[in-house]
Amino acid sequence: MEQAQLPIQLYTAEQVRTGEQKAAAMLGLDMYRLMERAGAAVFEHLVQAYPASTTVLVCCGGGNNGGDGYVVARLALEAGYKVILWGLGDSANLTGDAAIARQAWLDAGGQITPPASELPPSAGVVVDALLGTGLNGPVRENAADLIRLLNRSSLPILSVDIPSGLCADTGQVLGAAIRAQATVTFIGCKQGLLTGKAANYVGELLFAGLDVESAFHSVCQPAVGRVTEDDVAQCLGIRDRTAHKGDHGRILCVGGDHGMGGAIRLAAEAAARSGAGLTAVLTQPDNVLSIVSAIPEIMAKGWQEKAHEVSQKLAWANVVVLGPGLGQSDWSKALFFYIAATDKNLVLDADGLNLLALSPDYKNNRIITPHPGEAARLLNCSVADVEADRFAAVRALQQKYGGVVVLKGAGSLIDNGTDCWLCAAGNPGMATGGMGDVLSGVIGALVAQGLSLTDAARVGVLIHSMAADRCAMDGERGMLASDLFPHIRQLVNPKLRT
Known about the structure:
Layout: E1 9-11, H1 13-27, H2 31-49, E2 55-60, H3 64-78, E3 82-87, H4 96-107, E4 125-129, H5 141-152, E5 157-160, E6 182-186, E7 189-190, E8 204-208, H6 213-219, E9 224-226, H7 229-235, E10 250-254, H8 261-273, E11 278-283, H9 288-294, E12 299-302, H10 307-316, E13 319-322, H11 330-340, E14 345-348, H12 351-358, E15 366-368, H13 372-379, H14 383-388, H15 390-401, E16 404-407, E17 412-415, E18 420-423, H16 435-448, H17 453-471, H18 485-491
Parallel strand pairs: 1-7, 2-3, 2-4, 4-5, 5-6, 6-8, 9-18, 10-11, 10-13, 11-12, 13-14, 14-15, 15-16
Antiparallel strand pairs: 1-9, 16-17, 17-18
Helix pairs in contact: 1-6, 2-3, 2-4, 3-4, 7-17, 8-16, 12-13, 16-17, 17-18
Domain YjeF N-terminal: 16-218
Protein name: Bifunctional NAD(P)H-hydrate repair enzyme
Pfam family, one: YjeF_N
């Protein structure tokens, strides 16, 4: 059975559980047939990915995830592999389809042994079928001990549906979790596999629809959408041949207190490189020369705490990016006070968010782009609380502050209060100064060009992450925020399908 391309739609574990039953009933399939298909999909990947491994260690738990593991073990045994199966707990207590799969394994000549304190020396690959998507509390100690033993080994681990110990809805590690080299997930892709700490555990994520995905999608509405390159192409069409600079927006980038002029320069250049018609900067006077010397296309002006200068610039702009390098000095707070109340479209980032946290308000004309630390300040909670359930955090931010929220990090989330999207692109090389400033400039430029706040946030996050992925082809370490600019320019000019 071939693994399909990763779906655009993402689901909670409960949605998949109920949806797969409805889909199977619609197609006249019993659930054990789906279990056999799931095991076959995992076995197919095992054969393809680990051709040199002739001995397989399969670790099975007590639920349907363990049942999938018994199917994998039986198929491997029948194909001539040496299979060692460790059963966690008393396998005689299995019920339903998992019990049928266990009996089929025994009937094929397989044996079940309890986990040992050391891995079998002959094992070449591990199949993790210990704990499935139903896990919603801390991993029990016997399972945690086995997970830690497997993780300490140098053997590749292939997880069935989800790495054991990972929450399918949030990506949170529930005490201990398998660090898989690859995970084959089934029928509906679980939202927790693609955000937060999940990236450290899932490995390569593969999808197998088990030939019921069409029926499943017809009976189950996704919880989250995944942003794709098709979204970029749909939102950024070919420009009119008679277009002029006034057609593509006027963006004002505000920030850059003493010693932080580089942040606002990055945001402004990102805006210009993303297609804004005109880009201006309001900053500390001592930043102006360096900005215009490096990028003469940007109109930079020093602000000396005169209200009318802010009013003039706001009247000129149709979108404002506020926050990169803004700081929290008296100069910063005054500038924030004048601009944050604007009815113009606003992208708020960095110290703009920290100042917003001090005086929270609800507005629908802005996009806020916090990383987990800024999100924690905005929600008056801990970073751990944010990362424990990023989907709940991004929705809480939107409900408290309005507009569109981008919660940055691995698997960035975008929420407008009605719908939520996830960006699966990006890499650890982005963990460097200035990346957020570039993102705010990209998003602001897309708003300036006429995209809705929602589309600008969704498409901007993807363009930014894809640009970083292209940079990472030369290595993740040492990537600079400014390295993204050539790739951003390419990505904002998508090849439209005919």
